[in-house]
Amino acid sequence: MQEIIEKLLVLQDRDRKLHRVTQELAHIGPERESLKSKAASTQTALEAAKLRVKQIESERKQRDLEIEGKKSQIEKYLNQQLQTRKNEEYKALTHEIEMAKEVIFKIEDAEIVLMEQAEAAQKEVARATIEAAAAKKLVDDQIGQLNQREENLKKDFAELTAGRAQLASAVDETTRNRYERLFKSKGENVVVSVEHSACGGCHMKLPTQIVTNCRAQAEIITCPNCGRILYFTGGMELTAAD
């Protein structure tokens, strides 16, 4: 039975490595997407800043058009004043001219505010541009490292998988099936040592007979509590006896 235990331990070591490589590979995809998301968020912020600049510029142009429109009205009213001989019409036109000028003053005040907003928006674009570029460079570097890591892990996985079938075939089918069921349900620790007369997996105290049977190495012994496969060595026997 000692030979079977040794083969199981070798197989278990291979499966542990495969399991860890598989887990690492599973984490790379989400990590890569997370990095891309970070870079995308800074780019989105940059695009939003640029859009704000365009919106302000568009609003300023609209204000300019409004001013030009009011100036045209004033010019028209002035021409009408030159042509009218009625005092009431002249006064009415003067009122319209003053109203148009007042509107122009208000628009020009609004344009000053827009100019200040435009300056702040341009500064934000500059800041966001630097941040987006730095984020892209960092993310590109990190993704490059992840891609290399993924490539190495895939090579490791292929190498580990290639020899796994041969290691598994060295164990009889009944024992191998029991081991593989346990590996799926218990995780990496399936074949465990007896430590101080306790199971090395669940750490529950083992009956004396179970410990004795492990020492005898005449058959495959499992823990009555968790079902893991137990093994015992001379060194462990001395420890247990202390």
Walk me through this protein's architecture.
This protein is mainly alpha-helical and 242 residues long. The protein has 2 domains: 19-169, Helix Hairpins (Orthogonal Bundle), CATH 1.10.287; 173-241, no CATH class. Helices cover 81% and strands 5% of the residues. It contains 5 helices and 4 strands. It has helices at residues 2-83, 87-169, 173-186, 208-216, 234-241, and strands at 191-195, 198-199, 221-222, 229-231. It has a 4-stranded mixed β-sheet. The radius of gyration is 41 Å and the shape is rod-shaped.
Gist of the model:
This protein has 242 residues and is mainly alpha-helical. Helix content is 81%, strand content 5%.
Provide the helix percentage: over 70%
Q: Do you know the CATH architecture of the largest domain?
A: Orthogonal Bundle
- Compressed to H and E, one letter per element, the order equals HHHEEHEEH
What is the gyration radius calculated from CA atoms?
41 Å
Please specify the SSE layout and strand pairing.
Layout: H1 2-83, H2 87-169, H3 173-186, E1 191-195, E2 198-199, H4 208-216, E3 221-222, E4 229-231, H5 234-241
Parallel strand pairs: 1-4
Antiparallel strand pairs: 1-2, 3-4
Helix pairs in contact: 1-2
